[in-house]
Amino acid sequence: MRTKLKNVVVFVCVLCFMACSSDDDNSDSDLGPEGTWLLTSLSVETAFDFNTDGTATRDLFEETPCYDGDFVSFESEGEARVVSALTFISPNVISATDYSYDFECLTGFDVETNWSQSGNTVTIQLQGNDVFGTITGNTLTVFIPNFFQMELYNGTDYYDVTEDVTLIYIKE
């Protein structure tokens, strides 16, 4: 039986809108969120080895090709665009001791929204919720607790989990 795992990574990417400006005291250049931020890491709590390199990691960006090309773009007028894929993860159970996980990249979304900034924090309102990101240099980090939902298998039962997700974007 193949159980489906839907990755709400799409909304996580929206959270990536949280690009902030540099808050270095002696910086001559003001690194505002305006511009394009490319996703470089999407980490969850459970490690997988989807790329079959022998090393399970928590970074789905490294383990799958699903998020290649995901980005957040901030315009100076307070408008933003979020482009993000989705991942469908399912347990592949042969027996109680012989199981693995499969993934499928799904078409995600391309959403336009608004953003605001306070210091090095960028806030985006998404479906009535505020999502926050922090900028350090050219890196935007978004942490979303209890966000990534998936179904896992423990050798006996299928069970649902909700995990924290951390998104890392680099300014292009």
Report on this model:
With 172 residues, the protein is mainly beta. The chain has a single domain (9-171), classed as Beta Barrel (Lipocalin), CATH 2.40.128. 6% of the residues lie in helices and 59% in strands. It contains two helices and nine strands. It has helices at residues 9-15, 60-63; strands at residues 35-48, 57-59, 71-74, 79-95, 98-118, 121-126, 129-136, 139-153, 158-171. An eight-stranded antiparallel barrel has the order 1-3-4-5-6-7-8-9. Strand 7 (129-136) and strand 8 form a beta hairpin. The longest helix is centred in the first third of the chain and has 7 residues, at 9-15. The protein is elongated, with a radius of gyration of 17 Å.
From the structure above, extract its key features.
mainly beta; Lipocalin-like domain-containing protein; eight-stranded antiparallel beta barrel; 6% helix; signal; Lipocalin
Topology readout:
Elements lengths: L8 H7 L19 E14 L8 E3 H4 L7 E4 L4 E17 L2 E21 L2 E6 L2 E8 L2 E15 L4 E14 L1
Antiparallel strand pairs: 1-2, 1-3, 1-9, 3-4, 4-5, 5-6, 6-7, 7-8, 8-9
Main sheet record? 8 strands, antiparallel, barrel
Please state the CA-atom Rg, rounded to the nearest Å: 17 Å
Run of helices and strands? HEEHEEEEEEE
Taking the alpha carbons of the first and last residues, their distance comes to: 42 Å
Please report the total strand number as a whole number: 9
Protein name: Lipocalin-like domain-containing protein
Keywords: Signal
Signal peptide: 1-22
